[in-house]
Amino acid sequence: MYTTLISAPQLQALLKSGQPCMVFDCSFELMQPGAGEQQYQQAHIPGAVRADLDRRLSAAKTAPDAASGGRHPLPSRATFAAWLGSIGFSNNMQAVVYDRQGANYCGRLWWMLKWAGMKRWPCSMVACRRGRPMVAQRRVARQGRRAGCSIKVCPGPRKDSAHRY
């Protein structure tokens, strides 16, 4: 396991190792919401899953179960876990997240994984700079078990409570 930034060759070795791993491309542009999808279609790490800020990492502004408000409200933990399960992510996998914007959006997914209660299994962050992915690793915890790729989230603070991560 890596505890600091790793090089592109190290990321490639991780992907080739056969360890349970899922890569997420979180590229996004606030002023051009479709740009992240275009960037993903043009080039992405092989096997990477698209994690769009508007569609996957945020709830609709009118969603009754949104965990927060604002321009990009957090989805509920249950909604987030359901999406993770629907794409085949499970608690025994390493999450590798990256974007092309200096970790602005992949940092949200990294935080959301922690917020959802995963604190034991590793979660890596890749920042793409000048076309070279770099990975910083953080351990995240297993709060459930794989059951048809379902994710069990741990209960968190109430929606209106102050909390820090």
Give structural notes.
This protein is of the alpha/beta class and 165 residues long. The chain has a single domain (8-139), classed as Rhodanese-like domain (Oxidized Rhodanese, domain 1), CATH 3.40.250. Helix content is 22%, strand content 18%. It is built from 4 helices and 5 strands. A 5-stranded mixed β-sheet has the order 2-1-3-4-5, sandwiched between helices. The chain starts with 7 loop residues before the first helix and ends in a 26-residue tail after the last strand. Residues 135-151 and 154-165 have low confidence and may be disordered.
List its traits:
165 residues, alpha/beta, Oxidized Rhodanese, domain 1, 18% strand
User: Which segments are poorly predicted (pLDDT under 50) over 5 or more consecutive residues?
Assistant: 135-151, 154-165
Order of strands across the main sheet: 2-1-3-4-5
| CA gyration radius, whole angstroms | 15 Å
Order of helices and strands: HEHEHEHEE
The CATH superfamily appears as Rhodanese-like domain
Total domains: 1
Query: What level of helicity do the residues show?
Result: 10-25%
**If you consult CATH, what is the topology?**
Oxidized Rhodanese, domain 1
**Roughly how many Å apart are the termini?**
23 Å
Second-tier CATH architecture:
3-Layer(aba) Sandwich
Mean pLDDT: 75
